[in-house]
């Protein structure tokens, strides 16, 4: 018998579309988006389109916490965007949360980001007291890329200014260049997330290779022992690059939505195999079953725990949207997103009434789904 060791739970692997998480990726890409970087033209043009003050904020706030750009991860991960009540959160919800944080917490986040740099480098240095100004210059030096040491030390000693510039950068990037782009790309992001959900069921290693098209970086593999949950998030502009946020116990991996959707298009011929069967293979009775695309859309819509909970709630009768929000106990924006997907799939019907939306299960469609699955099982039996 081998040595006894303390076991660790298997990695939880999931997928998500998250504006707060997407902002981490977009801001880091904009920071790096200079001619010759290999990043796409939209990013380079978007960086140029930013007002000068936002470009300075971008370079300062990303330019003092090492090549992994730790600082801008801190406020957004403090928001807990992967929490059940924060899934589907808007930029306004993120900024409302950040506005409620004390200025001193921003200084703590900056110091934590610098501590992470020193841990990576193995310097053994710890943050000095605020009174030791010369020691601070030595402490920030290893993390500097595009930022000036004097500006960084000044910002750490002025947490109100740090808070203001952090929030201004997030709001400014969203309003100036990314809000319209996100809305235009939203359908592609949603399709990529649906495809990624299937890949994620195969486990982290295989999902990483399939979604990013790359091998697992050694720096990322080395830190997996601290990770309990991995979330794959589609990105509109990451291209062939690998980008991730390692924030134990969470790991967020960004992948190219465009590449994954394009690869997924190669699966379309297999959808033809799901074309409707017109009669029960056993009894010969005529049956109205679903077409391939309808069936896939409905199965995708049911592949989420919260959407299944919504179906359970509606099984007892019609409910208006706010009732569903109250009973699920998650953010209204997340409930709206889940209801929209169930409606698109034809599983629920919506009826506007007195300024409110009432939702009910489309029982005929659900029966068609059940018939379709039942018939396919019987079809398999007749082939044995």
Describe this structure in words.
This protein has helices at 19-32, 41-49, 52-61, 73-78, 91-100, 103-121, 133-140, 149-156, 159-200, 204-212, 218-222, 257-264, 268-271, 292-302, 305-314, 321-328, 332-344, 363-383, and strands spanning 12-15, 229-235, 243-247, 250-256, 319-320, 348-353, 356-361. Helix 5 (91-100) packs across helix 9. It contains 18 helices and seven strands. The chain has 384 residues and is α/β, with parallel strands linked by helices. The protein has two domains: 12-261, no CATH class; 275-383, Arc Repressor Mutant, subunit A (Orthogonal Bundle). Helix content is 56%, strand content 10%. The strands form two sheets. A four-stranded mixed β-sheet has the order 1-2-4-3, with helices on both faces. The longest helix is centred in the middle third of the chain and has 42 residues, at 159-200. The protein is elongated, with a radius of gyration of 24 Å.
Record keyword descriptors for this entry:
alpha/beta; 7 strands; Arc Repressor Mutant, subunit A; 3-stranded antiparallel beta sheet; 4-stranded mixed beta sheet; 384 residues; 18 helices
Nutshell version of this structure?
With 384 residues, the chain is α/β, with parallel strands linked by helices.
Show the helix and strand layout.
Layout: E1 12-15, H1 19-32, H2 41-49, H3 52-61, H4 73-78, H5 91-100, H6 103-121, H7 133-140, H8 149-156, H9 159-200, H10 204-212, H11 218-222, E2 229-235, E3 243-247, E4 250-256, H12 257-264, H13 268-271, H14 292-302, H15 305-314, E5 319-320, H16 321-328, H17 332-344, E6 348-353, E7 356-361, H18 363-383
Parallel strand pairs: 1-2, 2-4
Antiparallel strand pairs: 3-4, 5-7, 6-7
